[in-house]
């Protein structure tokens, strides 16, 4: 009964109740502000050729379309729900260096030709197209589906470097520190391999390819050329002069001497390697005639071409010895 409670005590109880209610209200407001702040802090902005792309929260449904983008996401601890298989690996669309990396297989999508409806049906919250053609129409259509991280400035025609690919994807996925760790691992591995093979320093190299249409050669900015130059080789200057912003140039049969260098490396592209070794014009290239050439097997060629961190680490473990033997004319 109120009449039995002393007035000061009653006022104390009432004031305590008001204070408690006020604290709860403040706590609620503070919590809302904190949540809002946390949400804002989790948003990141990635610079691309097409401008800044804002990504809110932590993407959970990632579609990786660029060359090696899926492998990069996997090496950062994120499993894409959809991915492109650029080198026709089959299965999960990744090289043997990442066998078993997926807990659930991704939906395999196109590469240069995309089924946009199929991509949209996956309901992605982030699309990675970091190592790609840099085609604006492709980018616009993907951006209509979900926030899309396209190529960096200067990354057109698949010339996105490994460093840019890792850093942009790591930033988009909120894995910046992990991305830097991966790049450091690659730097250490390259430094170790270069020091172990000082004879590579300054030697000229021609990195060629052969497919059903004939021969070609890669230029600076392509992962294959970047690989050999980081070991100490120098890409042949005559090839570089013909680049004109592309990662690859065609080499006519009558100009196959363009592939002559201290070391000639050739990748078979969906052809039997015997088509190369049996080619009489190829046999006449001086470096080939001297035994200073090498035709890469499937795994070596794919690791060399993919250029992702796990592929590079595999290649660094396996290719320098092959290059050394060929450079000595030991093939």
Considering the chains and any ligands shown, give keywords for the structure.
331 residues; 42% helix; 2 domains; Rossmann fold; single chain; disordered N terminus; five-stranded parallel β-sheet
Describe this structure as you would to a colleague.
With 331 residues, this protein is α/β, with parallel strands linked by helices. It folds into 2 domains: 131 residues, Nitrogenase molybdenum iron protein domain (Rossmann fold); 136 residues, 3-Layer(aba) Sandwich (Rossmann fold). It is 42% helix and 16% strand. Helix 5 runs antiparallel to helix 6 and helix 6 packs parallel to helix 13. The longest helix has 35 residues.
Shape: globular
CATH class division of the largest domain: Alpha Beta
Mean pLDDT: 88
CATH architecture of the largest domain: 3-Layer(aba) Sandwich
β-sheet strand percentage = 15-25%
SSE topology:
Elements: H1 7-41, E1 44-48, E2 51-55, E3 62-64, H2 69-75, E4 82-84, E5 107-109, H3 116-121, E6 126-128, H4 136-143, E7 148-149, H5 162-172, H6 176-196, E8 204-211, E9 214-218, H7 223-230, E10 234-235, H8 237-240, E11 248-251, E12 263-268, H9 274-277, H10 280-283, H11 286-289, E13 293-295, H12 298-306, H13 309-327
Parallel strand pairs: 3-4, 3-6, 4-5, 6-7, 8-10, 8-12, 12-13
Antiparallel strand pairs: 1-2, 8-9, 9-11
Helix pairs in contact: 5-6, 6-13, 12-13
